[in-house]
Amino acid sequence: MSQVHSFGIQPISIHSFNENHNQIAFSPNNDEVHIYKSGGQTSGGWEKEDVLMEHGQRVTGIDWAPKSNRIVTCGADRNAYVWTLDSGKWKPTLVILRINRAATCVRWSPMENKFAVGSGARLISVCYFEQENDWWVSKHIKKPIRSTVTSVDWHPNNCLIASGSTDFKARIFSGYIKEVDEKPEATAWGKKMTFANLMNEFSNGGGGWVHAVAFSASGDKLAWVGHDSSVSVVDAQNNMSLAFVKTEFLPFITFTWVTENSLVVGGHDCCPLLFNYDDTGKVVFMNKLDIPKETQTKEISAMKRFQTLDKRATTVEDSDLKTLHQNTITDMTVHTGDRGSAQKISTTGVDGQMIIWDFKSLESSIQGLRIS
Amino acid sequence: MSWLVIDFPQLYLNRGKNVDALKVVLKNAPLSTKNQNTKDKALQLTMRVLTSFRSAEIEKAVNTLDKLEIDMLMKYVYRGFEVPAEGSSAVLLNWHEKAYAKGGLGCIVRVLTDRKHV
Fold first, then answer.
1. I want to staple A191 with a disulfide (CB 3.0 to 4.6 A). Which of A35, A186, A267, B54 is the partner?
2. Nearest CA of chain B to the CA of A60: how many Å?
3. Considering the entire predicted model, what is its pTM?
4. Helix or strand or coil: residue A238?
5. What residues of B are in contact with residue A249 (Cβ under 8 Å)?
């Protein structure tokens, strides 16, 4: 069964779990970062542990590095902070991003020695720690980004960065920093990996802001979702072939790979959907992951019937959505497992809920659902 | 617009093959041209084709269209709303209903987000 946790009425804009999934950091759509710990007594209950209040404006990105247990947050105040746990308290370290617009998204690199911040300043700040000066240094990737960067993701080789932008394109840059990285080997995306080199640029020909990008687990495929309600996948091993599907659903805001060939997307339809990149190189819609059980109609008294008929011109009282999420899904992460084989994913939404979807129980409860 | 030298849509309409006429106008919509005149002429032609259908025939016609054509049809429906003519809105609303049944909300979202306009 999907576990539903409600964290209040504020929308949750972004969330991130720690390595053991017993702690969650999220922002209730304001300048605070809340850290909750999964409680012992109330099964499935979450207790507030800490509130991190360093950002002056809305927090736009949170990423929790699993191995080094550091949290990086970025906000509309053009700053990013790296938080380290110091005797039970989270201590912030300011990172000077040198941007003159809001930061929009942040991701630790796989080896957690760098992180990339997308911003409205039409550039990506790649930050690494300089030991001699004991501070974080940022380098910029500017060309040829023409508009706000909405999302960033790292390739497993710790060097390539994918970015989605409101100029309708998804791009892959090299984020190779010679001070902290070893020279990377050539990947299917290209050979030349000097810092800020544009490796590839993709677009599915329509319009629509790119809301989220991600590499598949092997790093050979890049997928993105856009505001034109489309899901697009580029396969580097298959001659950079681009496949996309323009769906009949409302636009998707977030997604995650769950196997090498399947992804789960979520957005304004408030329902996670499963898509598959099949062997013929097409993106195919497979299943909705949130199929509500048919509720039995409750007995309504005659008086109540006429009252609702008078107020709302219908005899049905139900104004809730049939899906578990009552509003847009804003963020989705892999909870248990990794991008190559996820067992559980978690979604947060504008309804203030965090729902953990367990694929094993979904596969048994939804007919014909097979995630491969 | 080379296809207008031989006015296929009008030929099809004359022979009562309005589904074929519809496919031609949707496939050859002048998206990339900057010539507003071309776009206006194409719009008029498409409106003529759309109004040539009886209400009962619309659903069958929509079912013969593929995804891209449905998206294009929806674009023309909304463009047609912008320049209302006598009784055109009622016909367009009928087309809108049938196109929405097939294309869903995503189809309407693409009318708003696509950079190339009809």
1. A186
2. 24
3. 0.90
4. helix
5. 104-106
